[in-house]
Amino acid sequence: MPDLDFRAPRLFVDAPLQQGARIELERNQSNYLGNVLRLSAGESILVFNGRDGEWRAQIEGRKRPDSLTIVARTRPQDRLPDIAYVFAPLKHARLDYMVQKAVEMGVSRLQPVLTRHTQISRVNVERMRANVIEAAEQCGILSLADVAEPMPFDRFLTQRQPERLLVFCDEAAETTSPLQALQNGLTAASGIDILIGPEGGFADEERALLLRQPRTLRLSLGPRILRADTAGVAALALVQTVLGDWLARARLARARPANGRLTVKPPAINSVGQSLSKRRPGHAKACANEAPRNPGEPQTNPGTRFFRIFGPEMTATAAITGAAGSAAWADALLLSFAQGGYVQAHPGILQPAEPFLDLSGEDIRKSLYLTTDPSGEELCLRPDLTIPVARDYLASASAGKPAGFSYLGPVFRYRGGQPSEFLQAGIESFGRQDRAAADAEMLALALEATTAFGLKDVDIRTGDVALFTALIDALNLYPVWRRRLIKDFNRKVSLAEDIERLTLATAPGRNEYEGVLAALAGSDRKAALALVTDLMSIAGTTNVGGRTVAEIADRFLEQSTLKGGALPRDALAIIKRFLAIAGDPDESVAQLRALAADAKLDLAAAIDQLESRVGFMAARGIDTKLTRFSTSFGRGLDYYTGFEFELHGKGNTKGNGVEPLVAGGRYDGLMTQLGSPAPIPAVGFSVWIEALTKLGSAA
């Protein structure tokens, strides 16, 4: 083993490494170094990229770490043994464990396969790659294992290279000694595939298909039945010992002179805080986001704060009183909700983590407080209340019928220097078909909520993502640009950059992928994914530069679309004109109808919905002249499908999406994503208690 530095933090960076290079840190990396590890400018860390070895780097930045300067190489790049770990996926937490251990054991490729008895049908490849990087960072590994897209088991057997050794872990193997089987078995000069089946075992036809494969070695793992994640570690240890780089390392050690004996530094832990500072992906620790304790306060295990919510300290009354010093505003708030016909909901604090990760993406993992139950299901402290209330509604006898709920309680989310436990209130309305009226009712109740805190005058900002979607559909754009522009709508910088990029003329030059781009011309995403999958299979790889097959297919399709002329200039002009519409809602309706008429686009249904909503808002006593509407307004959350709004304090100059007092909108697609067999209309809003109590006390 090389002389590893266990004291210095290690960080993966996706950038070329050479002496003197400057690397800009991503936001999460800056937060990790500055807020979690408490490192500052001038301190050193170790970095690697999976290609250029390991380097010592110096942190740069004034207020927080914002970049790294590469100083000197500490280790040359190595290569992983040609071992592919082929497995039937498990549930979240156990899959995380299995990926981490496979990386630590030195595999070069992770290939999920879907068998007859595989327990899950969806595999989060992005999450697997995050675990690969985390394990490499923590264990001094320099080369990253490729993460392949899941594929059916029979397809894997058809496409795998027949000259590779296939080690098939089988409790019915004739040779009971695994070491003997490996030592007397086939050679592994062309690489090894280690196959671990599902917990329910292989189906009879799958086992028969396996036994017909060339160069297959059946391996017993002893007299006991092992769980799939345990079996993976055992099989990898056996293969590495007999056929892998453990054997090569042992031979190298025997060939060394006596005075060349290798010594290994034990890992040093300077303090409890240091030992807890490095967290697994998404496993946020209380010690990383709590304020420093006061002098004289007894030191406690930082992790105990994670569980205080289950004790008497975290009663609702204590939480409410702690937030504002008085529960008077809570009485007024809940009374206004009850008078509107909304029943108070009390969803559980501990929730399945999967819905939050599926709907918000892996980025939210860094903000969640996670744990695992004995069955391996990943759980979290609820980061918001919308999804828990929606799940309870879907599990009730009222599912699919009109129903309204209110809530007030604590939620838990890592927020940098702010408290991770805070109060949230709000309303969710499900099943109402009168969408325009329900939208207007939400805005009216949200305005009533601000009066419970003594606020009389707020900025009302509204938008409608359904209008933008209708515009893009009417323009009949290439599928790749339709998907990309709708995705970018809530990310204003990206959308502006895309529009400016599309305005530029396409370069006439050729590139090395010209044939692929020509083959993809006019294709949809499904066809592009199939072509790229086949090409990657022929090349014998499933991951290039950290990009998955799907990501590579999207990139090729995008380039092919651009080469074909990108968007017509008249379409770009229409989109820009649309995004410039803002101001009085009634005037905006008129401008939208004029745009639709001039461009000969059918936007009538979406505009009619907006106009109807404005009418219901006026009927509820909302002065629409004081309401700002903007076609470019979005809340930065992908699950909104229509009306969106935010309420801000007067004089609050902070931008859209930053510290609203109340915010919400329509999310008709959420229920099917949570398992509803049919779409259910849904609209709601959340009240940010901290911001309202602060602004209300100053009013």
UniProtKB/TrEMBL annotation:
Top EC class of this enzyme: transferase
Keywords for this protein: Amino-acid biosynthesis, Histidine biosynthesis, Methyltransferase, Transferase
InterPro entries from the UniProt entry: aa-tRNA-synth_II/BPL/LPL, Alpha/beta_knot_MTases, HisRS-like_core, HisRS/HisZ, PUA-like_sf, RsmE, RsmE_MTase_dom, RsmE_PUA-like
Superkingdom of source: Bacteria
GO biological process: methylation
Transmembrane regions: none
Catalytically driven reaction(s): uridine(1498) in 16S rRNA + S-adenosyl-L-methionine = N(3)-methyluridine(1498) in 16S rRNA + S-adenosyl-L-homocysteine + H(+)
Domain Ribosomal RNA small subunit methyltransferase E PUA-like: 25-63
A GO molecular-function descriptor: methyltransferase activity
Ranges where the Class II Histidinyl-tRNA synthetase (HisRS)-like catalytic core domain occurs: 330-504, 565-692
Pfam family, one: PUA_4
Record flagged with keyword Methyltransferase: yes
Region ranges (Disordered): 272-303
Domain Ribosomal RNA small subunit methyltransferase E methyltransferase: 80-240
Enzyme Commission designation: 2.1.1.193
Claim: Oxidoreductase is one of the keywords in the record: no
Sequence similarity: Belongs to the RNA methyltransferase RsmE family.
Role played: Specifically methylates the N3 position of the uracil ring of uridine 1498 (m3U1498) in 16S rRNA. Acts on the fully assembled 30S ribosomal subunit.
Protein name: Ribosomal RNA small subunit methyltransferase E
